[in-house]
Design goal:
- With 249 residues, the protein is an alpha/beta fold.
- It has one domain: TIM Barrel.
- It is built from eleven helices and twelve strands.
- The N and C termini lie close together (10 Å).
């Protein structure tokens, strides 16, 4: 399992939210460029960047983020405000390693079908797209976690798989930003239903012990944010873990 450091950006600042609540925000005194450079200097190949403004329909951050990301050769998994197929294509053409789709995939019934056809040219989509599933008590949330979907969690996963999307970023909102441990029970349910999906775990990771527990579930990777900024997990520990995982393949 690979650890992916996370950088959430709100109003051009590096931040973390609690349970996706924009009123519960912690701002960190580090520039986005500096944080990317720090991860890269410590051997990280992939970073997770979320535009929190974009996630709620405010696209004022997008040019700022694009300009910074273009200057790095770090692989970027990018999400927040990806509202159209053209935007997905644009981001991939601009060098994004992976693009995360969430709200449109839930609210527009044909979005994933059209994305699969246009991006991949066949029934199976490329591994450039990650489907976000943000879950609160097994209810899928979207639009910056402000809206609830009537679609059942497992039904949604099955729909995505049928269209060729196999990589999922699953955030347990109950856990997010609290440093109280990962949503292990949720991930077990998902993997029991569909053991072959490539699952990226997010939310609540607070220690290397949490990392070990997720690794035991055979999860592909996990996103770690607040635990780094609050000094619960060091960048050196992430570097050593990822190096160990790569050399054991």
């Amino acid at each position: 399992m690979y650890i992916i450091p996370a950088i959430d950006v709100l109003n051009k600042k590096v931040v973390r939210l609690v349970e996706g609540d924009y009123k519960q925000v912690t701002t960190y005194q580090v520039a986005l460029e500096e944080q990317i450079a720090l991860y890269q200097a410590n051997g990280t190949e992939l970073v997770h960047i979320i535009d929190l403004n974009g996630a709620k329909g405010d696209f004022s951050n997008q040019k700022y983020l694009a300009d910074i990301i273009k200057k790095t050769d770090m692989k970027v998994q990018y999400g927040g405000g990806v509202r159209s197929i053209d935007k997905v294509k644009e981001l991939i053409d601009n060098g994004m390693h992976r693009v995360i789709v969430g709200t449109q995939a839930i609210t527009q019934p044909t979005f994933l079908q059209e994305l699969s056809t246009e991006l991949c040219g066949k029934t199976q989509c490329s591994d450039k797209v990650v489907v976000a599933i943000d879950v609160l008590d097994e209810v899928i949330k979207y639009s910056g976690w402000m809206e609830s979907s009537p679609i059942k969690l497992m039904d949604y996963v099955d729909k995505c798989l049928q269209l060729g999307f196999f990589r999922f970023l699953c955030t347990d909102i109950n856990k997010d930003g609290k440093l109280g441990g990962a949503g292990v029970d949720l991930y077990k349910k998902l993997l029991n239903q569909s053991p072959f999906i490539k699952l990226i775990a997010s939310g609540g990771i607070s220690s290397m012990a949490d990392i070990e527990e997720l690794n035991d579930l055979k999860i592909e990777s996990c996103v770690v944010g607040k635990a780094i900024y609050e000094n619960h997990i060091s960048i050196a520990e992430i570097k050593n873990w990822n190096l160990q995982m790569l050399t054991s393949l």
